[in-house]
Design a protein that fits this description.
Elements lengths: L2 E5 L4 E3 L21 E2 L1 E10 L6 E8 L5 E7 L4 E8 L2 E8 L7 E10 L4 E8 L5 E5 L6 E2 H9 L3 E4 L3 E7 L16 E4 L2 E4 L8 E3 L5 E3 L2 E8 L7 E3 L10 E3 L4 E5 L1 H7 L3 E5 L9 E3 L5 E8 L5 E4 L2 E4 L10 H5 L20 E2 L2 H12 L1
Parallel strand pairs: 23-28
Antiparallel strand pairs: 1-2, 1-14, 3-12, 4-9, 4-14, 5-6, 5-13, 6-7, 7-8, 9-10, 10-11, 15-16, 17-18, 19-25, 20-21, 20-24, 22-23, 26-27
């Protein structure tokens, strides 16, 4: 897998050698304008409000020598449509979704494989496990000229103010839950702290309650270091940390204390790391174009001790029961018999407004 392009409000990059840690010596394909990228994914994140009018989010239009365009558009009532036009040929798809009544971050993934005449448009809410996908029938090929027009802002390009980033990969990108720990995150084990990236199936780690549990899998993925993937630095000694760690915004952190007991009438809660960013205990970390994350799958998605801080391990629910979802995820290729079924989290998972209120109470 190689990320070939990255676009946000501040820069636009495109390289057939790849970006960031995925950079390679040889280009992924010949650098000719008419060269077709037969397999790939366009991933972008955007903030969309519930009552948004029809709005072009991201796309391009080129009228010469024949009309070519690819437009992603927000549709009224919540949802996103895609229309891809090449001359008299059209491919299109639309996904509706139930909005939470506020502006929220949506991740769209358009993946295609021309060889197998296959395409898929997927919508996810950042930080949630629900995935909605629709088939794109008879997807049209995208040339390097088309992709450069789209990603570099050539010809007539749409890039709405609500857009957070867009990225291009030469592979079918996984959808659903993903890893959230930097590989060098120290994890407590019976033999001392070990980097998360070195742990493998059969190793054991300490859960936050002191019990020893086995590692069932260690999953990893390289993603654009933007939007809901942009790294956050948790700083010691806050959260019980012995050293700073880098985690993804959607990593669930176990939080306790008198404020938790007072506000939520329970001992501990889970909150996404992004809601704890305050500029000193947790802050956004400047990074390059891509970042690699890993995460452990444990029998009951037990919280682990990462440099002393309790963080939830990867939650996969009952994914093993859904062959299609499993094959589309970062767990592609894993025997479903080797996967656990995860019950709902033992602790209350704070909604966005609850987490923000808790963070303000703690800062007061």
């Amino acid at each position: 897998m190689t990320w070939l392009a990255l676009t946000d409000a501040s820069e636009r990059r495109f390289s057939l050698h790849g970006l960031g840690s995925g950079k390679r010596t040889d280009p992924v394909c010949p650098d000719r304008p008419d060269q077709v990228l037969n397999r790939g994914s366009i991933v972008f994140e955007t903030a969309v409000a519930e009552d948004a009018k029809p709005q072009a989010l991201f796309g391009y239009t080129n009228p010469h020598p024949q009309h070519r365009s690819l437009i992603f558009q927000a549709i009224p009532g919540g949802g996103v449509s895609m229309v891809h036009v090449q001359g008299d040929r059209i491919a299109h798809a639309a996904i509706a979704h139930k909005n939470a009544g506020r502006a929220e971050v949506l991740r769209l993934t358009y993946a295609w494989d021309i060889k197998y005449n296959w395409g898929r448009l997927t919508l996810e809410r950042a930080g949630e496990t629900d995935v909605t996908s629709v088939a794109v029938e008879n997807p049209l090929p995208l040339t390097l000229a088309d992709l450069r027009d789209l990603m570099l802002g050539r010809e007539t390009v749409e890039y709405a103010p609500d857009m957070i980033f867009a990225a291009l990969s030469n592979q079918i990108e996984p959808i659903g839950p993903g890893p959230t720990l930097a590989p060098d995150t120290p994890i407590a084990t019976p033999w001392g702290y070990r980097n998360a990236g070195t742990l493998k199936r059969g190793d054991t780690v300490y859960a936050a309650d002191g019990t020893v549990v086995p590692v069932l899998h260690n999953v990893s993925r390289t993603v654009p270091a933007r939007g809901s993937f942009a790294p956050i630095r948790f700083r010691a000694p806050y959260f019980g940390l012995q050293q700073d760690i880098i985690i993804a915004p959607n990593q669930h952190v176990v939080v306790d204390g008198p404020e938790v007991d007072y506000l939520f009438a329970c001992e501990k809660v889970l909150t996404p790391a992004r809601h704890l960013v305050n500029g000193f205990a947790a802050r956004e970390e400047a990074w390059g174009h891509t970042i690699s994350y890993c995460q452990l799958i444990l029998p009951q998605h037990e919280p682990i001790l990462a440099a002393g801080a309790p963080l939830e391990s990867m939650y996969i629910g009952r994914m093993r029961r859904d062959a299609h979802q499993l094959a589309s995820s970062v767990l592609f290729g894993v025997d479903r018999q080797d996967l656990p079924e995860h019950a709902q989290p033992s602790y209350k998972v704070l909604k966005w407004f609850e987490a923000i209120h808790l963070a303000k109470r703690r800062a007061a």
